[in-house]
Design a protein that fits this description.
The complex is a heterodimer. Chain A is an alpha/beta fold. Chain A folds into two domains: 230 residues, P-loop containing nucleotide triphosphate hydrolases (Rossmann fold, 3-Layer(aba) Sandwich); 47 residues, no CATH class. Chain A is built from twelve helices and ten strands. In chain A, strand 1 and strand 2 form a beta hairpin. Chain A is globular. Chain B is an alpha/beta fold. Chain B has two domains: 242 residues, Rossmann fold, CATH 3.40.50.300; 36 residues, no CATH class. Chain B is 42% helix and 22% strand. In chain B, strands 6-7-8-3-9-10 form a six-stranded mixed beta sheet, sandwiched between helices. A four-stranded antiparallel beta sheet of chain B has the order 2-1-4-5. In chain B, helix 4 runs parallel beside helix 6, helix 5 packs across helix 6 and helix 11 runs parallel beside helix 12. Chain B is globular, with a radius of gyration of 20 Å. Classes of the chains: A alpha/beta, B alpha/beta. Chains A and B meet through helix 6, helix 10 and helix 12 of A and helix 6, helix 7, helix 11 and helix 12 of B.
């Protein structure tokens, strides 16, 4: 569990990056942090991993203030994937990169070696390959693999799919989603509303360092006021559904007015065609 | 006008050409979106336009690139940069100053823009990107997205004839991404600037570009108007490009025999199709 209790943080004294943020993230949740640029989303991620200390308030991981935990202790539980894998990768081979966290924590034992081998096999990596000669998508996967190889219970992802093409993006998100289904907590900063709609169960919306909304993903994405204040655009299917409902009051409450996904929208269109209910006037 | 004549480029350490026999004509003022899977040659294509290839990256270069009639091989990088303004994929590698205003001034002063004009250029470019309030801020204190807007603004201030941008919205929130494209489009239309923009967000290209190029293995796979290119949903997906959901919805309706028209590019167009289907 991660708790933010009245947390504020700043990089420049006169410009707080996060102001008085409070929220609790339970074990196993998949939470996306969204909002305009400079809203404080990445700062929240850094606070959760104690890469940044709060100027006020307290961040607790499993009930323990992060200020009382050493970086190595925290790293065992909270894995952090940077947006740019090149800021994270630091070894000469893929195997060394995957072993890195174990080595610096003094845990490079037989069990760690087994986890590294399993990860190499699972991702199909060449263990002797030089990381910087891999393409961007593979480097991002390597960075992700080097975080999850240590089996953290919480995964923090700061825009994990920026710069990736769609197939690479799906590959990364499928790994993350699998971990979440096996119980890992996921905190993710992301600007891709379609991706968020596909994966996140809860959205935290930030603007100018403050949390302005926090709730189930599609409740937030259907809230026009919150989307406007948070510089968000609803995913296309939600926008189509909202537009149709706005143009015809007779659609209120019908599946067409509630469709959030492509399949739901196609089903709603089929239903409306078969029953005549919801046909547009 | 930009003209590529049978351009091939292979990086010195590469085994296969990154750009492979590309011929292309881009008229003045056209807004061209370039997309494709990772490693398809998008960034290298932009490097052939701004002269980084062949001037900076070692490798084998064949063919000819003409920018406003000048052959990039025979033109110095300085002279190319007066015609072609570039925004890099990694904007941090572009920044040279610690404060936004100084960053804006760097290019203008180096290009010898008169002092009478500089202030107005900085004001105009910052306003165009909606970041006038960041003028006095330190770059280190900006978010990734804010730095990205600064990187675009400092190039806009130089008034180049051609703008080449490599994923300029990668770190931007959805509304800012759209506003960058809207502002680029407006800026380019007003000034007659040619824009070549590499972008993974194909929904933005569908909405704002006059033309979309899809690259595969360094060659042009698809080249056409957005509605034409988006009509090839399966080909695009096979190349790691996910069509906008509006396009996919309309495509599914088409496959069910419920729609016969062209591919939808935007939410508005998809709404029109759904209304037709349910009429």
């Amino acid at each position: 569990m991660i708790e933010f209790q009245n947390v504020s943080a700043a990089y420049e004294v006169e410009t707080p990056a996060v102001r008085n943020a409070s929220l609790t993230i339970a074990d196993g949740e998949f939470v996306a942090f969204v909002g305009s640029n400079g809203a404080g989303k990445s700062t929240m991620m850094r606070l959760a991993n104690n890469l940044l200390a709060p100027t006020e308030g307290c961040v607790l991981v499993d009930g323990v203030p992060t200020s009382e935990l050493r970086a190595s202790q925290l790293a065992r539980h909270v894995g952090f994937l940077f947006q740019n894998p090149d800021r994270q990768i630091c070894c000469d081979t893929v195997r060394e990169e995957l072993e890195f966290a174990f080595r610096v924590q003094g845990r490079l034992d037989a069990r760690a070696a087994k986890l590294v081998d399993e990860t190499i096999e699972r991702f199909g990596f060449d263990p002797d390959a030089e990381p910087y000669l891999l393409n961007r998508g593979t480097r991002q996967l390597l960075a992700l693999a080097s975080v999850i190889v240590g089996e953290p219970t919480t995964l923090i992802l700061d825009e994990p799919t920026t710069g990736l093409d769609y197939l690479e993006c799906c590959e990364v998100m499928d790994v993350v989603s699998g971990l979440n289904q096996r119980g890992a907590t996921v905190l993710m900063v992301c600007h891709d509303m379609e991706l968020i709609a596909d994966y996140a169960k809860r959205l935290v919306v930030m603007t100018a360092g403050e949390i302005i909304a926090d709730g189930p993903t599609f409740d937030i994405l259907r809230d026009v006021d919150v989307c406007e204040r948070g510089n968000l655009e609803p995913p296309h299917v939600v926008a189509i559904s909202q537009r149709l409902a706005a143009e015809d009051s007779g659609l209120a409450g019908t599946p067409l007015a509630r469709a959030n996904t492509l399949d739901q929208m196609l089903e709603a269109i089929d239903g409306a065609r078969q029953t005549g209910k919801g046909n547009l006037r | 006008m930009i003209e590529l004549q049978n351009v091939t480029f292979r990086y010195r350490e590469g085994t296969a050409p990154t750009i492979n026999d590309v011929s292309l004509l881009i008229p003045d003022g056209q807004f061209v979106g370039v997309t494709g899977a990772a490693g398809s040659g998008k960034s290298t294509l932009t490097h052939t336009l701004n002269g980084i290839v062949p001037h900076c990256y070692p490798g084998d270069f064949y063919g000819k690139v003409l920018i406003c009639g000048s052959d990039t091989v025979d033109t110095s990088l300085t002279d190319i940069s007066r015609m072609v303004g570039s925004v890099c994929q990694d904007v941090d590698s572009q920044m040279v100053s610690t404060v936004v205003e100084d960053e804006m001034l760097f290019g203008l002063e180096n290009f010898g823009v008169s002092h009478d004009e500089i202030d107005a250029r900085v004001d105009e470019a910052l306003a165009a990107m909606g970041i006038s309030d960041l003028r006095e801020r330190t770059i280190a204190g900006l978010s990734g997205g804010q730095r990205q807007k600064v990187a675009v603004a400092e190039i806009l201030a130089l008034h180049p004839a051609v703008l080449v941008l490599d994923e300029p919205t990668a770190e931007l929130d959805p509304v800012s991404s759209r506003s960058v494209f809207a502002q680029l489009k407006e800026y380019a239309t007003q000034r007659g600037t040619t824009v070549v923009v590499v972008e993974q967000k194909i929904a933005l290209l569908g909405e704002y570009a006059d033309r979309i190029l899809v690259l595969k293995n360094g060659a042009i796979l698809l080249d056409g108007a957005p509605s034409e290119v988006l009509g090839h949903a399966d080909t695009l997906l096979a190349e790691g490009i996910n069509c906008p959901r509006s396009t996919t919805l309309v495509e599914r309706l088409r496959r069910r025999g419920l729609h016969e028209g062209r591919a939808a590019r935007t939410v508005d167009e998809a709404v029109d199709v759904v209304r037709e289907v349910l009429a």
